[in-house]
Amino acid sequence: MRARWRFAKNLASTVLLWAAISALGALQTFSDNLRGGVGSHYPTLFVTWFIEYALPLIVLSTGLSTALARWPMLIERPRNVVALLAGLVLVFQPAQWLYMAWLRGYLQIGSLADLRDLLLKMLLVGWFSTSATFAAILAMHYWRRARERELAWQRSQTDMLNLRLALEEQRMLSLRAQLEPHFLFNALNAISALVRDGDKKLALGGIGGLSDLLRYALSASGRNTTTVAAELQFVRDYLDLQRLRYGDRLRVHIEGDGDLLHDIECPPLLLQPLVENALRHDLDCREGPSDITLSFMQDGETLSICVTNPAGAGATPNPGTGLGLANTRDRLRLMHPAASLQAGLQGDRFVAEVRLPLTM
């Protein structure tokens, strides 16, 4: 059905094109006749042009276009093009001459001289229009094939990008699925420590705090991004829960908190793994109060977020290899190419620095 529609559309456009060319040719002949003082009738000239010149070329155009659409290999090699041109010269052109001679009444041949005169009349007829039509059909077919290849390439690139996007989304979901149980496990550990200490009041308060944290975590799991300000509030709630366990030993200095944080996007559960890592490698590795700093600073078109803690003798040599920090680094890379996480020792402190572009 589609092939028939394509053929009908091709035939209609070809007829319209050659009708327009016939109209222009008839107008030129009519103008020449007027200048030469020869009487003529334009509709008759138009019909003559269309029947004698256009009709054979309509057959050539439609037939050649249909054949190339069905068998594109006909012109895939230069020798095939030469063969088509030879067929045009040896088959179509003589057939066109015979058709025009029949219309003009030139077929009454009584001698070899009449045959020679007919050949001389016909040899100069139709060469340019026929060869130009042949070249135009080939050029159009080559253009169409090139266009189809370009569209196919674009579709393949689009499909590849969609596939990569789907894979990245699945990777993001996988990272999130790893992160949320990790956070839940650590939060439950904090409550378990309170229960083991036998302080029921603090344990009940911790369960209430944990409920608020889980509510945020579940809400964040349905989004790809949140704001730095929301993440900071989540960290404050998390620290309140941990403070039930560590008491006055837990001290975190927050610097640079401002209105700018409400406008900057980041992945959900970005800051909590960094602060958790600092707590684990500070309070759990030495006696006395913690010395943790969480700072925010604008650096040109980037927001720098630093979490630092002392790196004592009992600290793990490279805390940045933990699951929380590793997942955070991957999620930042997936969110934006310019976002990054650098973690390592700087003097006697361990520094985890997140850099976020101000505009995504």
Automatic annotation (TrEMBL):
Q: Give the originating organism.
A: Duganella margarita
Record's signal peptide: none
Q: What is this protein called?
A: Sensor histidine kinase
Q: Does the keyword DNA-binding apply?
A: no
GO MF terms on file? phosphorelay sensor kinase activity
Q: Which UniProt keywords apply?
A: Kinase, Membrane, Transferase, Transmembrane, Transmembrane helix
Occurrences of domain Signal transduction histidine kinase internal region (ranges) = 172-250
Q: Name one GO cellular component term.
A: membrane
Q: Which residues cross the membrane?
A: 49-69, 81-102, 122-143
Which SUPFAM superfamilies did the record assign?
ATPase domain of HSP90 chaperone/DNA topoisomerase II/histidine kinase (SSF55874)
Q: Lyase as a keyword? A: no
| UniProt cross-references to InterPro entries, sorted A to Z | Bact_2-comp_sensor_kinase (IPR050640), HATPase_C_sf (IPR036890), Sig_transdc_His_kin_internal (IPR010559)
